[in-house]
Amino acid sequence: MSSDALVLFALNATWQIAALALLALGLGLVFGLLRIMNMAHGDFVMLGAYAPVLTAQWGLPPLAAIPVCLLMVGLTALIVERLVIRHLYARMFDSLLATWALSILMREGAELAFGPQFRNVPLPFEGVTQIGTVGYPSYRLLVIGLVAAGFLALWLWYRRSLTGLKLRAMVDNPTLAEGAGINTARLSAGAFVAGCLLAGLAGLLLAPTLSVYPGMGLDALIRSFFTLIVGGLGTLEGLAVGAAVIGGLQAGLSAYLSQTAGYLGVLILAILFLWRRPDGLYRHR
Amino acid sequence: MKRLLISTAIAGLMGGTALAEVRIGVLVPDSGPAGLFGPSARQAAALAAEDINAAGGINGEPVELIFADVGVPPAQAVQAVQRLWRSDGVQGFVGMHDSAVRAAITGQLRGQLPYVYTAVYEGGECATGTYVTGETPAQQLAPVIPWLAENEGVSRWYLIGNDYNWPRDTNAAAQEIIAASGGTVVGEEYVPLGASDFDASLGRIRSSGADAVLVTLVGGDSVGFNIAYSAFGLDQQALRLGTLIEENTLAGIGSANANRLFASMGYFAGIDSDAARDYAARLGATFGSDAAQPNGMGESIYDGLMLLAALSNAAGSLDAAAVAAVADGTAFSSPRGEAVLDGNHVAQTIFLADGSSGAFEVVTRFDSVPSGVTCP
């Protein structure tokens, strides 16, 4: 195997891992903090991916997609939290069913609002960066950098900030946290909206590399789910490890065998983990 | 309005008796993965009914369309067909859907009603009473691959498709046509439906040294593949040819990612003919802001209805045996141009279009291309 092919493979695997970590972050956050498996997670990704479509339609500059995304996804998440999620904290199975229904509702709603057709989101900038003799899409390199920086910042914030401390207190013992004067209802609402916003931002960032249509959320949900199964639910470190294993395995098998082998490998691994190690690689303390 | 006038005229002739109508079942995908084509298919049907009635209807009687959603599993689609047949008194069917649904329908109808299938498909349908207007792999590739060899200088083909029978059968036909035109196949690969990561495939295409890629991925998979293809700059190395890349798929791919992306089909919105321009203008005039983007999948329903009307008028009725007796050689026209039934498939015009600008521009056309299907 030539060194070029090795570099290209490493880049592809890194891209896969970064995209997976980005996609799974919102789902992991909501589950880790609230014990709610948000089946509508992928549809918040979809909503975020439509932000640049809408800003282009309205004739706004490309950067306006960021506030449009935050506003659209944030408001939807806030309404959903008030109407549905709030009543289902600590009821894992009920919340799973309710958010699955929500997912269908959002998908059909998007089809009504945006139409069933495929949309294209142009890259904010074109171009291929030369790494040695290998050319790699510049936008992908930017996303990899952003994901790495974002994860580091989030990890530091969760460890060091007061809100992070309150969150950890809430996860460990909600009743005690409330007794200590922490407004857990507000904190929970904030955590859910934050998780959805992260999903939306993932959609926004990945939109130029994906096919954007109302049903695109399902793929995002499934891949995020596998990542969490392998990594373990509830920690940033686990999520990163899960993304690395799933992304690396799929990229490796796809490159050396076939795409089918890649998918099969991921499925088998997910089943093995659910069966033998339901807590994932990175066990929650 | 036209329809009303004709209806009144016929009612007058008949001395005011209740007007008989010929009911045709139109099977379109309103839901499922092909749901995207539902609106354009329904609009094509509406225009076809208008034109059939304006020309005197089917055997002098106005046609009435009854729609059913067949973007569902075959077992459910068959129930819809039964309902239209047994309860609504439908006398013939025109359908645009996948092959699994087609197989279920032919098994159900058993040649008792004429049925026209209009979707691009893998070829080989020979069931009694079934007529096919959809493009076959032989039609989409036999004239096009030699043309690309001569005019674009490509000879090293890489074949990539989703893993089911249409891409596999298309590529089987492509293998022979490429060999016959002096080219070679440097790679053949199938990815599961719903794939979102094509990096490994793109790496293989690059190292294969291909100068042309035949894309038989469908829908969102095709969009994702073509976006990544351009991101890696592979458009410089090899042109792409798609046999199911229509206007909606191209819009998803985007003009920035469509350099040297060709498509081969029987219809494009941009066909430079009076019939095609008239069709697009009428869609706008009739449906206003609800007019769906015209595309080969949706428009095919227009062809199907025109063929069924022509068959019935030639036979004097929609009786399956009478239609079968006169079918061979039946001609009809549509926005695609002129087509003639040869056996139970049509010999038709195939257009090769270039999507580089973000909209398909027809670069050449091939007339009377045979379907390559001969039934026993």
From TrEMBL, chain A:
<dbReference type="Pfam" id="PF02653">
    <property type="entry name" value="BPD_transp_2"/>
</dbReference>
<feature type="transmembrane region" description="Helical">
    <location>
        <begin position="191"/>
        <end position="213"/>
    </location>
</feature>
<feature type="transmembrane region" description="Helical">
    <location>
        <begin position="139"/>
        <end position="158"/>
    </location>
</feature>
<keyword id="KW-0813">Transport</keyword>
<protein>
    <submittedName>
        <fullName>Branched-chain amino acid ABC transporter permease</fullName>
    </submittedName>
</protein>
<keyword id="KW-1133">Transmembrane helix</keyword>
<dbReference type="GO" id="GO:0022857">
    <property type="term" value="F:transmembrane transporter activity"/>
</dbReference>
<keyword id="KW-1003">Cell membrane</keyword>
<dbReference type="GO" id="GO:0005886">
    <property type="term" value="C:plasma membrane"/>
</dbReference>
<dbReference type="InterPro" id="IPR001851">
    <property type="entry name" value="ABC_transp_permease"/>
</dbReference>
<keyword id="KW-0812">Transmembrane</keyword>
<dbReference type="InterPro" id="IPR052157">
    <property type="entry name" value="BCAA_transport_permease"/>
</dbReference>
<keyword id="KW-0472">Membrane</keyword>
<feature type="transmembrane region" description="Helical">
    <location>
        <begin position="225"/>
        <end position="249"/>
    </location>
</feature>
<keyword id="KW-0029">Amino-acid transport</keyword>
<dbReference type="GO" id="GO:0006865">
    <property type="term" value="P:amino acid transport"/>
</dbReference>
<feature type="transmembrane region" description="Helical">
    <location>
        <begin position="64"/>
        <end position="85"/>
    </location>
</feature>
<feature type="transmembrane region" description="Helical">
    <location>
        <begin position="255"/>
        <end position="275"/>
    </location>
</feature>
<feature type="transmembrane region" description="Helical">
    <location>
        <begin position="6"/>
        <end position="34"/>
    </location>
</feature>
<comment type="similarity">
    <text>Belongs to the binding-protein-dependent transport system permease family. LivHM subfamily.</text>
</comment>
UniProtKB/TrEMBL annotation, chain B:
<dbReference type="InterPro" id="IPR000709">
    <property type="entry name" value="Leu_Ile_Val-bd"/>
</dbReference>
<keyword id="KW-0813">Transport</keyword>
<keyword id="KW-0029">Amino-acid transport</keyword>
<feature type="signal peptide">
    <location>
        <begin position="1"/>
        <end position="20"/>
    </location>
</feature>
<dbReference type="Pfam" id="PF13458">
    <property type="entry name" value="Peripla_BP_6"/>
</dbReference>
<comment type="similarity">
    <text>Belongs to the leucine-binding protein family.</text>
</comment>
<keyword id="KW-0732">Signal</keyword>
<feature type="domain" description="Leucine-binding protein">
    <location>
        <begin position="21"/>
        <end position="353"/>
    </location>
</feature>
<dbReference type="GO" id="GO:0006865">
    <property type="term" value="P:amino acid transport"/>
</dbReference>
<dbReference type="InterPro" id="IPR028082">
    <property type="entry name" value="Peripla_BP_I"/>
</dbReference>
<protein>
    <recommendedName>
        <fullName>Leucine-binding protein domain-containing protein</fullName>
    </recommendedName>
</protein>
<dbReference type="InterPro" id="IPR028081">
    <property type="entry name" value="Leu-bd"/>
</dbReference>
